[in-house]
Amino acid sequence: MVFDAQTRMKLSAGAASVLVAGLLVGLKLWALGQTGALSIAASLADSAMDLLMSLGAMGALFYAAKPADDDHNFGHTSVEDLTALAQAVLVGVSGVLIGWTAIWRLIAPSETALRAENAGIAVMVISMLLTVALVWWQGRVARRTASRVVAADRLHYLGDLLPACGAILSLIASSWFGIGQVDSIVALAAAAVLGVGALRIFKGAWDALMDRQAPPEVIEGIATLARNWPGVRGFHDLKTRTAGSRIFVNLHIELDGDLPLREAHDIGAGLRRTILLAYPQADVIIHKDVARPETSPHAL
């Protein structure tokens, strides 16, 4: 399969995500064994979820890149939303388990002592540096490709930075002040972050699977192009839906009924090319109707 430049960029972001998540899982497993810190366990669980989600995202990006066929006339991009839905469930379950364990430690009669805090701090600092580098690259790819999967993955890794900072703070509190309960409090906060992130991812994927329209600014941008395009007297039935990183657009434009067929076609084709230049992730179908005498160029 030959991939275009945008697909290659998305796959590079996915590969980087898998590599970083794998490294973080290995580092945090070692750190957890050395320190016994629940906050590191929370961060480890989050990285393990990251690894699973990154692998799923890679598979989804490969599948979504398949061209349309007889069974899938509009392509395969909805697999990105299905993957995001599964990711949301995994993140939510992880947050519940970590939160429950944190609460149990807070109400336990004896405090679990941490150990080897300096080693844990070193691992968490390294993990943060790796995460920052990954987030930078994902942000660049997301801006260039408008990929929902890459953007969502980036947001999740941004969210990882808070639990990592919390783990470092809890280890410092234990090492310098002998306060171990900070570890459970930080883990509880991390669980809350995971829960909020899971709900956000779930809602975005659900909306896309239910054919939710494109963002208002995209719809208004397309309407403005149609409204000001030479030869277009008006337009109506501007409908959009999202599927993965794709936006499907249907638009009826109203033209002078006396125009030659070739000229009418050129007007529609020119408008379509302009919309695609403004929104490369779009799939645009333009219908041409005969304008009524009273049609306004500002019709919707």
In short:
The protein is built from 8 helices and 3 strands, in the order αααααααββαβ. By secondary structure, it is mainly alpha-helical. Helix 8 links the parallel strand 2 and strand 3.
Would you kindly provide a written description of the structure presented here, covering whatever features stand out?
- The chain is mainly alpha-helical and 300 residues long.
- The protein folds into 2 domains: 5-209, Alpha-lytic protease prodomain-like, CATH 1.20.1510; 216-290, Alpha-Beta Plaits, CATH 3.30.70.
- It is built from 8 helices and 3 strands, in the order H-H-H-H-H-H-H-E-E-H-E.
- Strands 1-2-3 form a 3-stranded mixed sheet.
- The two termini are 40 Å apart.
- The mean pLDDT is 78.
Reconstruct the topology from this structure.
Layout: H1 5-35, H2 38-64, H3 78-107, H4 117-145, H5 148-177, H6 181-209, H7 216-227, E1 234-243, E2 246-255, H8 261-278, E3 282-290
Parallel strand pairs: 2-3
Antiparallel strand pairs: 1-2
Helix pairs in contact: 1-2, 1-4, 2-3, 2-5, 2-6, 3-6, 4-5, 5-6
